[in-house]
Amino acid sequence: MDKTTRAINKKKKFVADGVFNAELHSFFSKSLQDAGYAGIEVRRTPTKTEIRIKATKPQQVIGVEGKKHKELTQFLQKRFGYSDDQIQIWAEPIKFKGLCASAQVEAMNYKLLKDVPVRLAANYIIKSVIQDGAKGCEIIISGKLKQQRAKTMKFKQGYMICTGQPKNDYIDVAVRHVFFKQGIMGVKVKIMLPYEPNPAKKFGVKTPIPDNVIIHPPKQITDDKEIRTAVEQQQPAQPEQQQ
């Protein structure tokens, strides 16, 4: 009985953590839309709960003289029952905005709410993503696009992987919903990240694509000794003559 109760408690804990993260995500996406909200990262310790907010404009998360930061902390304390020292909120800037799908989908939502044409907004975001070094980008918009009937529009550019383990490693996906008077519009952004063997210098994926073939240039031989050794290596070994 102890094993079953422990398993049930673990399941309940995972479900409670998922509900907590989903509620935080929905709250921050509505309240920090102007700051370029791009996701959260929750770190729990026995004494504190740290919430790191990723945004393109971290100064707007803090606000003038920290007013916005105080409002967010007070709201979370009242909603989830935290004390003053049990919760901390940090704002982290995004270095490569074009390679972050969540930041780009929030920018797409902001443009659609400002009545920017769909094709113009999608092409602008794809152009900025490709300029930052991404291999490919795809934007899918579905809903009532200024019409009575709902339809789906897809915008693509570059190279995109759709299957296998490289899809999990290279593809960054983000989905958001835009609420209009005529209905809900869904926005999905997919970005294929570049290959970077040293991710400390630049943003990218360290593991190479399995089907990637590198062809090295031929070696130039100028010395006579190197030519003789190369010819001897290419020739097959002759059998020893019988006495």
TrEMBL record:
SUPFAM superfamilies for this protein: Prokaryotic type KH domain (KH-domain type II) (SSF54814), Ribosomal protein S3 C-terminal domain (SSF54821)
Q: Which GO terms describe its molecular function?
A: RNA binding; structural constituent of ribosome
Q: Please indicate which superkingdom the organism of origin belongs to.
A: Eukaryota
One Pfam entry for this protein is KH_2
Residues forming the KH type-2 domain are 24-95
Q: Name one GO cellular component term.
A: cytosolic small ribosomal subunit
Keyword set, alphabetical order: Ribonucleoprotein, Ribosomal protein, RNA-binding
Please name the GO terms of the biological process aspect recorded for this protein, alphabetically: translation
Q: Which NCBIfam families match?
A: PRK04191.1, uS3_euk_arch
Which PANTHER family does UniProt cross-reference here? Answer: 30S/40S RIBOSOMAL PROTEIN S3, SMALL RIBOSOMAL SUBUNIT PROTEIN US3
Protein name as it appears in the record: 40S ribosomal protein S3
